[in-house]
Amino acid sequence: MPDTLRIVNGRVYDPANGIDGEVRDICISDGRIVASLPQDAPRLDVNGMAILPGGVDIHCHIAGAKVNLARKLQPEDHRRDPHPSTAVTRSGTGGIVPSTFATGYRYAALGYTTAMEAAVPPLAARHVLEELHDTPVIDKGFYVLLANNVFLHRLLREGRREEFRNAVAWWINAAKAYAVKLVNPGADELWKGQRNTNISSIDQTGTGIDLTPRQIIRSFIDVVEELGLPHPVHIHCNNLGHSGNWQTTLETMRTAGESRLHMAHIQFHSYGGEPGKNPTSKGPEIAEYINTHPNITTDVGQVMFGKATAMTADAPLGYMLRNISHNKWINADVECESGCGIVPFTYQEKVYVHALQWAIGLELFLLSKDPWRIMLSTDHPNGGSFLKYPRLIRLLMDRDFRNEEIQKVNPRAIKKTVLLDNLDRQYTLNEIAIITRAAPARALGLKHKGHLGAGADADITIYEENADKERMFNAPRYVIKDGRMIIADYEFRTDHEGRLLHVAPAYDAAIEQKLHPFFDDYYSIEFANYPVADSYLHHHEIVPPVKAAV
Q1: Do the bridges between strand 296-299 and strand 261-263 make them parallel or antiparallel, or are there none, so unpaired?
Q2: CA angle 187-192-193, nearest 5°?
Q3: How far is the C-alpha of 380 from the C-alpha of 136, rounded, in Å?
Q4: Confidence (pTM)
Q5: Residues 6 or more apart from 409 whose CB is under 8 A from it?
Q6: Phi, psi angles (nearest 5°) of residue 114
Q7: I need a surface site. Which of 20, 248, 317, 341 has the fewest CB within 10 A?
């Protein structure tokens, strides 16, 4: 592909710049989008096609120790992979948890050019970076797990606020992470010591660490704001998957006040009912709170029927799912930092709970009043594979198709939702461009992604327009990454190495004098060997803070 290209005659969907289906030229030069090019520049005529920015997946699980364990746990899944081996996919490396190599190409084959790994213990960061480096085409980054870090708990408990701030910044730098992830704050250490003891309220005390989840959450929200990180705290709430957990979810959002907060896979946190009994839907109540609080962003974590894999740093949740499924499983303790649970799982449309989960996700999408703050995800592979995104898009865009699918699932579950209450909303193509591209990029603070304005990365997806939206989004005609034609006429034409995206907040190096003896006492790795050195990175980009650090 030439260094310059003018794309002509396509309908452009670029909501970040207020363009909704207008026929416009898109000009590319040296990997960026530019305002104009000479008239004799090479041209690509895409008449009858839709031009969108490259997709951005704000929450998925695609690299690292837990993902690798999930691959090893299911060797049969790779052999049953529905995608035949091609020139760009190694045989036996697909399935619900594909290899790094297959992951990059399969995201690109859907028109996605950026994906963020959602949960990494800092101890596993080097492994994650190796796997992300081996994931082709797409740009990527990861969120570092800090909510159950024993050293950070000690600083909070002792009121050492400034040291806490510096230690958080040090850990982000040491791991080369993009954002702070909180999973079941304050609960993992309790569960490790007392077995299947979980936290059901964010004001619960007696957790063994003398901190409530609310104290932990609020402290991280404040520090992330002070450090000016481009993405807010990204939280997997306490009490995930349990009946009645919607109250925990509401209290978690209230804890943020007016500060930014991103709620991960909100569908799994929107259940009514009594603990230990079948859940009911509280999707409308959760949607209403998000609609009226512009500081909150979320991704849905839509359940899609078929094979999935529960993969979480929420160790008590992993244990609960194992007892439900009676399937093989893995549970792991990540020293002083986190836990891990992995359980193969299959969602079935006739099972009450599975059907309810599917329906709640759709409720949240359809009741949302601001597509800029609710983003498409399946929490891959927890709610289903990212390969199900085209079908999910069709469910949102095609009311008749959605109603046909509703008739196939457990009717008792559907009656517990508002899906039968004349929810006629159909997402427009512009709104799909928001929830899959523009909104995730904005929530991540990635100013060069998710749009097609001058200066943006030349990450572009071009689809043949089709009334069948699942078919349309299942196979883009062209995919351009950093100005390079990756897919042309539905076929891969070249390889590409995407960038690692990370942040580097400032901190006082004196914090290392406090950390060093703790590592000597409690870690299995030498302190000097723990941080990832800059020289270890390959193709990377440091994303600047959104404001000066306090």
Answers
A1: parallel
A2: 105
A3: 18
A4: 0.95
A5: 305, 349, 350, 355, 358, 359
A6: -145, 140
A7: 20
Position 149 in a domain: yes
Residue 42 in any domain: the answer is no
**Cβ pair 128, 64 in contact under 8 A:** yes
The backbone torsions φ and ψ at residue 540, rounded to the nearest 5 degrees and listed phi first, read -140, 165
Across 363-379, b (16+ Cβ under 10 Å) vs e yields bbbbbbeebbbbbbbbb
Residue 354 CA: distances (Å) to CA of 71, 96, 347: 24, 18, 6
**What is the distance between the alpha carbons of residues 397 and 389, in angstroms, rounded to a whole number?**
12
How far is Cα 385 from Cα 400, in angstroms, rounded to an integer? 24
**Is 453:24 a contact under the CB 8 Å cutoff?**
no
The two three-digit tokens of residue 403, written as one number: 């109603």
Rg (CA), the chain: 22
* 8 Å CB contact between 6 and 27: yes
Taking the C-alpha atoms of residue 328 and residue 120, their distance in angstroms, rounded to an integer, is: 23
Q: Which two tokens stand for residue 360?
A: 């709640």
Is there a domain that residue 526 lies in?
no
Mean pLDDT per segment of 10 residues, for the chain of length 550 residues? Answer: 88 98 97 95 97 98 92 80 50 78 96 98 95 97 96 96 98 98 86 65 78 96 98 95 94 98 98 92 98 98 95 78 79 84 93 97 98 98 96 97 96 94 91 98 98 98 97 98 97 94 98 97 94 91 76
Tell me, what CATH number does 182's domain have?
A: 3.20.20
434 bridge partner residues: none
How many structural domains comprise the chain?
1
Phi, psi of 468 (to 5 degrees): -85, 100
Q: Report d(CA 341, CA 70) in Å as an integer.
A: 10
Position 506 in a domain: no
Return the pLDDT at 207.
58
Residue 365 to residue 503: CA distance in whole angstroms? 31
Q: Domain containing 449: what range?
A: 52-500
